Each structure stands twice: as C-alpha cells, then as structure tokens.
Amino acid sequence: MRKLILALASATVLAGAANAATVYPIDRATILVGSPFDFKVEFDAVVKPEDVKVTVNGQDYEAVFGKKAEFVAEEKGAEDMVLGSALTLRGLTIATAGDYKVEVTAGSETKSVNWDVYGTATEAKAKNIIFLVADGLSVAHRTGARIMSKGMTEGKANGRLAMDDIPPVAFIGTSSTHSIATDSANTMSAYMTGHKSRVNALGVYADRTPASLDDPKVETIAEALRRTTTKSIGIVTTSEVEDATPAAVVSHTRKRADKEQIVGMLFDVKPDVLFGGGSVYFLGKDTPGSKRKDDKDYIAEFKNAGYALATDKTELAALSGSNQDKLLGLFHTANLDVTLDREFLKKGTVDKLPNQPGLVEMTKVALDKLSKNPEGFFLVVEAASVDKMSHPLDWDRALVETIEFDKAVGVAREFAASNPDTLIVVTGDHTHGVGIIGTVDDEKPGDEMRQKVGTYDEAGFPNYEDKNGDGYPDRIDVSRRLFLSANNGPDHYETFRPKLDGPFVPAVQNEAKEYVANEAYKDVPGAVFVQGNIPKDGDTGVHAVDDIVLQAIGPGSEGFRGYMEQSDVYRVLVDAFALGAPKE
Amino acid sequence: MTETHPAFFNRRRMLCALAALPTLALARPALASDTLGFGELYKKFGILGLEFSDKVKRLAGQEVTVKGFMAPPLKAEADFFVLTEIPMSLCPFCSSDADWPDNILVVYLARKQTFVQFNAPIEAQGVLEYGSWIDPDTGFVSQLRLREAAFNTA
C-alpha cells in the first residue's frame, strides 16, 4: 500500500515536471549543413510572446538563425481545443557544421535540445547511387527466396542470389520518434531525410496540430540533390508511386494517405524517371476511376513538363529509346499485381491489365535513361509487395516478390560492374514477424495438414523445380514446400497451401469492427483455425521491430558499419555524394 | 458529442432496425428493377481512366439491384457504405496503407439500416447515379452511387 502511494506521488511529480516545451527538430537530431528545415517550439501552456526566450549556443536565436520566428498565441486541436502557444520558423538553414544547443524557456516551461549539424566530404566518392529497398525485407524472405529459387542439397545452397554477394554492413534500427514500432512512411523517410519521424509521417516531424500539411519539414534527398547538384533522380516501384516508400523520396506530409497531394509533391521535384502504379491520383475528378477531389490533370501536367508517358510493358520498352527529357511510367491504377499473379497464375487484376511490366524491366529502362546524365544519378528501386504480401501472410507471393527484387539487384550489380563509380545499397525499410520453420509435405501420412509439417530432421528439402532456369520455381504448389510462419496476426485459417486463386485474405471485419477469420478458407481440407494475438482491430500481420540488415558495395559503402539508426544511413548517402561539401 | 443516454439510444436504434426489417422485405418489389453486376460497370479499364458501360449509362436514374459485399463503414452512423465486388480484408477508412479498389459503388441509404456482417454477400437496391461526387460530410469521392437505397442479405 505504501508503495502504491509512493508510486502515485511520484507519478504526480512526473506529470508536473512534464510541463516542458517540445522542440523540432528533436534532441539529438542530425542535420545536413545548408539544408533547409522548419524549427518549431510547442509550449504546453498559452504563454506571452515577451516571456519566450530561445537561445542557440547561448546567443539569441535570431542572431544565429538570421530570421525571426512566427509566434502563434493559441494553437488549436480537434474541436478548437487550445493546445498552447507555438513558435515556428520555416525554411531555416545552418551554414556552418557543428554542435548546436537550442534552449527554450517561457514561464515555467523549459526545453533544451542538441543538434549535430554535419558537413560531408569535399569530394564525392560515388557518381551514382542505386538504393534498392524491398519493403518489409526480413531474413526469412532472403532465406526463402534463395531456397525457392536456387534449391539446396545436403544443407548447401545450390546457387547464390544476386544480393548474396553484397556484403552485409550494418544492422539498422527502424524505431520511430513516438514508438519502438514503425511503418514504411517514417522508415523510408528516415533513409531519405536523415531524420526519424512518427508512424505515417513523410519528410516532417509530427507536430500536435491536426492539419497534415503544416508539420515542420526537413529536406528530402531529392530536394538536396536538386539544391546542390545536376544529378538525375529516379523512383521505381511496384506500388502506387504515391505510396509511402516512393513518396518518401520527395514528400512532406504528416499523413501518408495524402496521396492526392503527394502527386503534386512528385511534380514539384520532377524525378527524371518515375515508374510504378497509382494512375488514379493523376486523373482529374471527372475522369471515371479518379481518386482526386480536384480537376487537376497530372497526366497532362507531366507531359507538358517534358515527360514521355508509358502505360504498359510495350510502351515501357519503347521508352528506352526515347530522347525525351523525363520518363513517367504508370502501369496500374493502383499497386502493380505481384509477380506470381502477373507472370504465372494470371490472378488478381491481371485480366484487366494484362501487360504490366515487372520491377526488373522498369529498373533496366530507368538505369538506361538515368545513366545518360554525365553528372550521375540517384535511383530508388522498391519491391513494394514483399511487404504487401507479408501483411496478409501470403508467404509464397512474398517470396516470389523477393526473387524478383533480387533480379533487380542483379541488374544494378551488372550496371555497377561497368560503372564502378556506383554505390549500391540493398536493404529493407522494416521487418515482418516471420520465420521459416521447415516444410509442408503432402506425402506425409494422414489427413491432418498439421501432421504434414516437417520440422528438424523431418523437414528435409523442398522439391521446387526451375527447369526453364528463369530463377522462379516452375510451380509454387509442389508436394514438399517451404513452411513460413508468422509470429503474429489476426484470427485466420492456416491452409498449409499456396493460395492459387489470388492473394490470401486472412481476416475480414465483422459488424463489431473486429477482424475475424475469413470463412472462405474454413473448408480448405486440413485448414486449422489460428487464434490471433494482436488486437482485434488489426486486419493483418504487423511489422516487426527487429533490426533490418543493410548491405552495400561500391564507393562510399565503407560509411555503413555496425548498428546504425535508420536516419544515419542518410548521412552516408549524402557523404558519398558530398552534398554538404564546404562552399568555396 | 451526443447527450443521449446510451442505453436508450441503443434500444431505440435497435427497435427502429427491427421495425424496418419487415417493411424492407415488403418494399422490395420482386424483379421490379434491373440487376447490375460488378463486371458490367465499366467497358474500359485503363491506366488513364475508366469508361462507364453502356448499361450503366442506360440505367442511370433508374432503380437497380447490385450484389456485392459491404465494406466496413466509415462510422456506425454513416448514411452511406461502400459496396465491393469481393470482401475487403483491409479497411481503407481505418488503415492508412489500404486503399479502395477501383470498381466500388457507394450506397446512400434511404433510411438507416443496421450494418451486416461484412463478409456476407448482400443485395443493394437504389437509384443508379454516375459521375464524380464528393460526399459533403466526409469528403469521400465516388464515381458510381445508389441513391435512396436499401439492402438485404442476399
């Protein structure tokens, strides 16, 4: 009892002491010298402007920052609730590298943060960077792709993936500013800005006001490249081009779902190559299929800005010979169908859009175009559906996506072989809670599928075949196949079999807004009910907090080492390009 | 925020729903309306836009019946829901990395109905309308709608 009272007492004291202002960029932020960013102070209380004092390294902030911040007496939250006063200074740049201590006081509120403003090498180490990211890439995806694609005999792989010969150089911590857990928005944003942020946020720190487009911005790598170089920029993805990972290269929003605005942000930066899906956000609202709320026709806008447009595989192939400045490829209204459906099973939306290219073709055309710039390029290649198929626990599709990703890595390595001034980075943005635990063998006795799961010595080796040597298994539904298992998920039925009719839909929502096992799989012979272990409003498997493996090869790759925060990866990229070189 | 006593509110809502059910069954005239399948909504499905089918254009302004699945609604008291061809596993209203399929139909109910289990097939009936529309309350954009609609489990 006494303990409890003490605990209560200390909780109260804590709440009292928590009366501290919040400062963005956050404490321990790392900032590229010369890069514009927004400075914001959020006070818990309404304070008087004359009581606000901000110093930088002991000097008045205006003297150091060279600008006066705007004071907002009362910031409003939902339903006009007063959140407190705020101070905002947009588009600030710090021209000299070094340690900056920012101290803020107003009334009883006080906060002190330290920033590391860093410069880079004077000379660029690399001319080009190819940043290949498989969304959600976990160790199980790599192992599974290798076994499925190359096979295994007596415990040794029968072949190597393209990524197997790129040295793993760092473990990346993916946690976000408000949680150990994370999503593709803040993770890719950390890679592409050098600043960690909050789940769903891109290129901004997540402030407290409800508006999603007013949060304190930080510079993206695309903006840094435009500001300091004449290099080309490419974004290639199998998702919608507005999806979080590709969007992170250019965007500033608290809400990754602002896809309509993200198209505008892509247009502002004008990547030299932009390939993926998501065409419906480019169409004015009166075009059937449009998901825009305005009349903007971004297809026309991009064309007027000098882009050649491709909408299928044939037109993409024709683009490689195009002498137009910039290339826009939109190959789906939404996300591209996954490789297993696109190339083999013809499921998903392949009947409607039968001529979609894959990541490999898109990467080749992108490299062909970007490499024409004598100043070099920065290319992001994303295998989006490793994640998009891992969420619904469709491991067969996720592994085939990983094989496709690996082929794109192969294309990048081939390019680097003849262009050795190219830095290649291969990584994921976050992990999934998945592991390979053995095989499922239809030949094992009995009717119960669970009894056919082989573990330890009983797992043996899968019997996938690749007779045509294309790197993909000829069939996914072989009699002895890999068994992957998620460590989390909603209620669902485990069928122990590949989903040949289309991607797995493990759970559906009921009228109480809870996700329940999808009855469509209940009567699959041998299916067993798997009790979920995440909250019932969770629709699919979730991201893991586990570190990501980062691999790199080429000039500048020596900058990656040991454990790194995801935001530190940016520093290595901009150092390889010398984007913060001292000005003459 | 509503000040209504929760127990009263719930009971009243349920009574309304119960009362509505038999009326609905009666109000549904057998085969009085044309049926429209999800496969019949568009004649062209392209990257640069979809094109409504001749059937959609012909039936606009008329009562039609469409079979599909009720997607999880934006909120329990919404006066519209989204009808999809296949059950939605993700909830685009609740999850920011989920998005709607292209061939959805928005159903504006003539009067409130209790939402059904979302993976059960339903039959919705209402006056067909096409063209871009932004819901004034929610900002939700739709291309195809059923107005003055009601639904039944199929």
Detailed description of the structure:
The complex is a heterodimer of chains A (584) and B (154). By secondary structure, chain A is an alpha/beta fold. Chain A has 14 helices and 30 strands. In chain A, the strands form 8 sheets. In chain A, strands 16-17-15-14-18-10-19-29-13-30 form a 10-stranded mixed beta sheet, sandwiched between helices. The model of chain A is unreliable at 1-18 (pLDDT under 50). Chain B is of the alpha+beta class. Chain B has a single domain (30-153), classed as Beta Barrel (OB fold (Dihydrolipoamide Acetyltransferase, E2P)), CATH 2.40.50.870. In chain B, strands 4-5-6-8-7 form a 5-stranded mixed β-barrel. Chain B is globular, with a radius of gyration of 16 Å. Classes of the chains: A alpha/beta (584), B alpha+beta (154). The interface between A and B is large, with 48 and 38 residues.
Structural features:
heterodimer, A: 584 residues, alpha/beta, Immunoglobulin-like, Alkaline Phosphatase, subunit A, 3 domains, 5-stranded mixed β-sheet, 26% strand, disordered N terminus, B: 154 residues, alpha+beta, OB fold (Dihydrolipoamide Acetyltransferase, E2P), 5-stranded mixed β-barrel, 2 helices, 36% strand, Alkaline_phosphatase_core_sf (chain A), Alkaline phosphatase (chain A)
Give the CATH architecture of the largest domain in chain A: 3-Layer(aba) Sandwich
Residue stretches of chain B low in confidence (pLDDT < 50, at least 5 long) are 1-31
Number of strands of chain B: 8
Give the N-to-C terminal Cα separation of chain B: 35 Å
